[in-house]
């Protein structure tokens, strides 16, 4: 895929995730989502492996869709985001249990 188109696609996805994050009802979750999004995009910005890039884009699209569902109060999506935010699930849980 053309690098310019890929870059535009990634930036658009990044902005959309941040925009949806700002609409979430829980203030702590808003901060968590914005920080996590920034960290993940920065972490993979120099990635060159095409299959890994495609996989990470798919993950980001999945996260955006989950956020959109959560913002219309889909219980499963809201629960998942709150569990990640408050360390009931995911990497934060593992940090807290150390």
Automatic annotation (TrEMBL):
One of its GO terms (biological process) is iron-sulfur cluster assembly. It comes from the Eukaryota. One of its GO terms (cellular component) is mitochondrion. Residues 13-97 form the LYR motif-containing protein Cup1-like N-terminal domain. It holds the Pfam family LYRM2-like. This is 4244_t:CDS:1. It comes from Dentiscutata erythropus.
